[in-house]
Amino acid sequence: MNYTLNQLQIFLKVVQTQSVTKAAEDLNLTQPAVSIQLKNFQDQFDIALTEVVGRKIYITDFGREIADAAENIINQVYAINYKTLAYKGQLTGRLKISVVSTGKYVMPYFLTDFMQQHTGIELVMDVTNKNKVVESLENNEVDFALVSILPTTLNIEKLDLLQNKLYLVGKTSVEKSLAPQEIFTQYPLIFREKGSGTRQTMESFIERNHIEVLKKMELTSNEAVKQALLAGLGYSIMPLIGIRNELQNGELQIIKTEGLPIKTTWSLIWLKGKKHAPISLAFLSHLNKKKSEIVEAKFSWYEQY
Fold first, then answer.
1. In terms of Cα–Cα distance, which of 184, 187, 176, 181 is closest to 229?
2. Confidence (pTM)
3. Which listed residue, 2, 69, 190, 272, has the most CB atoms within 10 A of its CB?
4. DSSP secondary structure letters along 106-168
5. CATH number of the structural domain 5-87
6. Helix/strand/coil for 267
7. How many CA atoms lie within 13 A of 109 on its CB side?
8. Helix 20-27 crosses helix 31-42 at what angle (to 10 degrees)?
């Protein structure tokens, strides 16, 4: 047998995602490239690793055993790399962060300098909705989580990073400022999916103002909502952080509405009493020193809204 580390990584990702397409996306590869490497890997075994039924890929029992072995091999390779860097006195290991979907516009700016200073660190950042972020933190699967609404079910510690502002946004502006009761009964309102922090904030605002929403749509990502707004399907309450380019290009407009913007805070959180690894402690130290500098350099545009 003559399989490569790259083939092991690709096969393991296919097993984890149960999809060639999703594996290609996660690995930043084309789907044909993943399919070719998967076939080349499979050809080295006399027993099938996968089965395709209809358009869905299934992993055989033998394939799952090979995936377990592949994961062990890959972890050993990481360990060798970490030991080599540690021997040189460099900070090494994995930094695992779970981020709510809109937080993808925030977290990278607080990571860039730290990652450039410590090249031996491997970053694992999962971007998902608030419920899953809280679940991963509760299960101690990550070092930190980035949220804009603090979980009430966990005992946590936090470091506030940036203010979060949510406005009513649409493709067309409205000349006068409208009361919430007026605008939400006149225009279709687009919601995020259940479990989203933005959805939770939006519903709290509607309930607090005793608003009856006549027309409503639900989409499963911030990008999907934004594309729907650009197409003119309706309006939504959205975090300012995710629509900078569209506002500056005049593609979307902030609609003046009583009670808006809603202001929350982007906070990095972790379980209270967590025993941080050296990497996590170094990252917290970096943020405490550089937070204000990063906000001023990367988010100064925020203040004009």
1. 187
2. 0.68
3. 190
4. THHHHHHHHHHH-TTEEEEEEEE-HHHHHHHHHTT--SEEEESS--SSS-EEEEEEEEEEEEE
5. 1.10.10.10
6. strand
7. 18
8. 110
Strands 156-170 and 253-254 turn out to be antiparallel
pLDDT in tens, 83-107: 665 556 567 788 999 999 889 999 9
List, for residues 220-244, the tens digit of each pLDDT value.
Answer: 888 889 999 998 888 899 999 999 9
Q: How far is Cα 216 from Cα 239, in angstroms, rounded to an integer?
A: 19
User: Residue 21: CB partners within 8 Å, gap ≥ 6?
Assistant: 31
Note the pLDDT tens digit of each residue in 134-152: 999 999 999 999 999 999 9
Q: Is 93-162+265-304 CATH 3.40.190.10?
A: yes
Q: Say whether 164-264 and 93-162+265-304 share the same fold.
A: yes
Q: What is the phi/psi pair of residue 102, to 5°?
A: -70, -20
Alpha-carbon distance 192 to 223, whole Å? Answer: 10
- Helix, strand counts (H, E) of the chain: 11, 11
CB 294 within 8 A of CB 109: yes
Q: Give the tokens for residue 47.
A: 């027993």
Strand partners, 270: 157
pLDDT at 16 over 80: yes
91 membership: H or E segment, kind and range:
none
